[in-house]
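User: structure tokens for this one?
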Amino acid sequence: MAIINGRYYSSVGQYSPYTSLQIQRYQASQANQKFLQTTTAVIDTMTTANRNYVSGMGDITAKIAIQRIQSESAASAAQATNFLSALNTVA
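Assistant:
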């Protein structure tokens, strides 16, 4: 059985039913393997994209929380300063 450019050629004309079935099984196996490789690549890409998205959202949420804490801290400090200055003017 000769293989030329990925195709099978018989030197005697037609293949036997068994050989034809073996060729079909091999070709189906190759197609299945290619499909699995492509599917795995897509799944890996989607997993990486999802991981990056979740990580990015976590970073954004953390930055917003830090800004909120800083603004609340600044407001509390200003309120404390006003309270202390009010105490100093009364005394």
